[in-house]
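Standup notes
- DV: blocked on the single-chain target, sequence here:
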Amino acid sequence: MLTNVLMIAYGPITNLHQSLFSLTSLYKFKNALQAIHKILIYTDNPSIFNNFFKSEKVETIPLSTDKIKKWRGPKDFVHRLKLEAMKDTFKNYPTDNLFYVDSDTYFTKSPLHLFNALNGGTSVMHINEGQLKITKDILLRKIYKFAKKNPIKVKNGNVAFKKDHCMWNAGVIGLSPENSHLLDIMLSYADQAYDLYPKFVMEQWAVSLVLQNYTKILPASKEIFHYWNNKDAYNENIAAYLKNNTSISLASECLNTFSYPPEPVKKKYFLKKLVPFRILHTNIKNVNTHSK
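- DV (later): unblocked, structure below
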């Protein structure tokens, strides 16, 4: 079964450049390209992609302002658009696998075995970010409390929250045609959850939760690097790179000259109770006061 690669690129030129660079990195893996039916780009600027690729394999789908507004929904939830675009893709290509990739990514290894895994009904997401119950991430702990207190009834399916469920990064989402119906369940859950608790990760949580209920999830982090936390550095280097490489042929040939920014220093997570901090702060103030 062939796979369609889906990317969404609209808004600032940096978003479009990210998509061009990500797809350029995919082009160096010829075995994966042979397994791709179409590279579908939903964009408000089709010409930049048509001029860069000039390939029948690459198809641009215009994103009008009205469609963007409709797909983001009444709450203007930006990440909701992703799920609607995936639904639209399955509507147009109902027998192909679907492999969605965020624009702020690049391929480090061939994704062919990920495409092949979809044939067996396995799903793909970028990386497991941790079990909600035991995570040290403050936002994910809030999502855990929310999910425990707010069981949500979805349309056309059932979604049960279990204490061992994890949050997966949705920078990559791979689905087979047999699992395409899960997108309606994801949208139903995401819409209701966002109404109750409007956090930007609700689409990500909806996808994670639904896929853990219905399928096995395979990580794509070894094949795809996701620089969501280092965009400014990448945007600058990508702009310089594309200035000199204005077509897929030139960009592919010169990919080894791209200057990859260093990874940002990871902040060590620590959690201190507020009361001891206040006591310490008060003692310091008292010491300073008495020393005057």
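- Follow-up: Confidence is low (pLDDT under 50) at residues 269-292.
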